[in-house]
Specification:
The protein is an alpha/beta fold. It has 3 domains: about 5-80 and about 265-375 and about 435-470, 3-Layer(aba) Sandwich (Rossmann fold), CATH 3.40.50.10490; about 85-260, Glucose-6-phosphate isomerase like protein, domain 1 (Rossmann fold, 3-Layer(aba) Sandwich); about 480-515. About 50% of the residues lie in helices and about 10% in strands. It contains 19 helices and 13 strands. Strands 1-2-13-12-10-11 form a 6-stranded mixed sheet, with helices on both faces. It is globular and about 80 Å long.
């Protein structure tokens, strides 16, 4: 299916070129894509690396595989299905998708016209949660007339807090689960239903919406047909933002937001499909990611959005990247042979500067950084935005260029420090520099630019998976944990279960079983 990456002569050439390529912004490398500016001047670059990257992509049948992804071909090999989330945002979708989109819009228009459901409790987890949480946070950060609560965790405190203080008679429960069997979602949904019933709501199921690929299961649960919106098996959970899962977004911050995000993502799809390799933003980000992870050995990627409204971008990208690229065998089931899938982490700047940027600058490991910033703000305080922009550019420049020992020494001497003290102190103040980064500039944070940004990362992940020879569309590792949890749950409930456990797990099953009751 996919020969081992390390067996390819193209990989050997790419790796050799990457090790020799400098990381220094002597040449402006700016790519414009779907209204976004991507500056990759701070990534490793050389003519030899450019040529080797093209050859490596050719060896991985990039053009053919990109076409397969975008036209609904089988790209999820281990589950034998497409990953056709791009179809959900096509300007002229197929009849089934268009009909579902019309149903969703009609539902929202009716709810808005009747001023119904001042409260929404969105119950979902993973891909059924993070994208909606991101969009609502980005465009409803100053508040909306509907109050939205997100409930994801199985911890009972989550649903307790999500329902607290709400009027049950004016609350809509949105259950988002592709299978409609997700333990967290269904347990929290049952508690929400009981909450409606306990409040005397005459027909609580009329205040429940289901978004699922198993409508018959939702019907059996009690949700009326008119309140069930469809997903499809070829939509992976971490890509479901583009589906009816965004019903909550439309109710909270208007249908125009959803439409704008779809349009921006479509524009990035078109760029990915048509732009030449050297000017293809997702491809160039992917190549930089492969260099940083598999050649230079960086174990993580820091996401630094310099926009308060993008607070939920980091966990969204954590799922997208780490669930997709957290693989160590290729499509043939053999070890990949190189490091894959970096850990994704971060928080908005400038909070991040007061939290972990010291480690980025002078720590022994460090990490590449994706700086994300909006050129224009949507508030009226220009000085705030100038300070924000200045900090973003300054932190990136410091990571890239560093501060030499000589410069630090002179700085100390100029401050009146003695020669001996200055020579000692300068060693603490010097920065190595040479740490890779990209700068992603949105003209403003709009639904269009956010949609384009998310699609940029989606396609970047696809290309990285293609180069490494892994399947970025399954998640068997976490599924195994779910299977084990089912057996342990039976044991905690006092039922016999056949699996043997290690000594520690067995001890805590017994201890927890005694403390939490049957």
């Amino acid at each position: 299916m996919s020969c081992a990456l390390t067996s390819l002569p193209e990989w050997a050439a790419f790796e050799a070129a990457a090790r020799k390529a400098p990381i220094q912004a002597n040449e402006l490398r700016l790519i414009q894509a779907a209204g976004i500016d991507l500056d990759i001047s701070g990534q490793a670059n050389s003519p030899a690396l450019t040529d080797a990257a093209q050859a490596l992509l050719n060896a991985r049948d990039f053009t053919q595989m990109r076409e397969r992804l975008l036209t609904g071909g089988i790209v999820n090999i281990t589950e034998n299905r497409a990953a056709w989330h791009t179809a959900l945002r096509a300007p002229a979708p197929n009849q089934e998708i268009a009909a579902e989109r019309q149903r969703l819009n009609a539902f929202v228009r009716l709810a808005d016209s009747e001023r119904r459901w001042r409260n929404i409790v969105h119950i979902g987890i993973g891909g059924s949660d993070w994208g909606v949480r991101l969009a609502v946070g980005a465009f409803g950060y100053a508040g909306t007339w509907r109050q939205v609560h997100f409930v994801a965790n199985i911890d009972g405190h989550a649903i307790q807090g999500g329902l607290a203080g709400l009027d049950p008679h004016d609350t809509l429960i949105v259950l988002a689960s592709k299978s409609f069997t997700t333990v967290e979602t269904m347990q929290n949904g049952q508690r929400a239903l009981e909450w409606l019933q306990a409040a005397g709501v005459e027909n609580p199921y009329k205040q429940v919406v289901a978004i699922t690929a198993r409508p018959e299961t939702a019907q059996a649960w009690g949700v009326p047909d008119t309140h069930i919106f469809k997903l499809w098996d070829w939509v992976g959970g971490r890509f479901s933002l583009w589906s009816a899962v965004s019903l909550t977004t439309a109710l909270a911050v208007k249908m125009d937001v959803v439409a704008g995000m779809l349009a921006g993502a479509t524009a990035m799809d078109s760029h990915f499909a048509n732009a030449p390799i050297e000017q293809n933003a997702p491809v160039q980000m992917a190549l930089a990611g492969v260099v940083n992870r598999s050649v230079l050995g960086y174990g993580s990627l820091n996401i630094a959005p310099y926009d308060f409204r993008l607070s939920n971008l980091v966990p969204y990208l954590q799922q997208l990247e780490m669930e997709s690229l957290g693989k160590s065998v290729n499509l043939d089931g053999e070890p990949v042979g190189v490091a894959t899938g970096p850990a994704i982490w971060g928080m908005p700047g400038t909070d991040a500067q007061h939290t972990f940027f010291q480690w980025l600058h002078q720590g022994s490991d460090g990490a590449p950084v994706d700086f994300i910033v909006c050129q224009q703000a949507d508030h009226g305080w220009s000085k705030h935005h100038k300070i924000l922009l200045a900090n973003c550019l300054a932190q990136r420049e410091a990571l890239l260029n560093g501060k030499s020992y000589e410069a630090a020494l002179q700085e100390c001497l100029d401050a009146g420090v003695s020669q001996q003290q200055a020579e000692w102190l300068a060693r603490h103040r010097a920065h190595a520099g040479g740490r890779p980064s990209s700068l992603i500039v949105l003209p403003q944070l709009t639904p269009y630019t956010l949609g384009a940004l998310l699609a940029l990362y989606e396609h970047k992940v696809f290309v990285q998976g293609l180069i490494w020879g892994i399947n970025p569309f399954d998640q068997w590792g976490v599924e195994y944990g779910k299977v084990l949890a089912g057996g342990i749950m039976a044991e905690l409930s006092g039922k016999l279960y056949g699996n043997a456990h290690d000594v520690s797990t067995a001890h805590w099953i017994q201890a927890f079983g005694q403390s939490c009751g049957k």
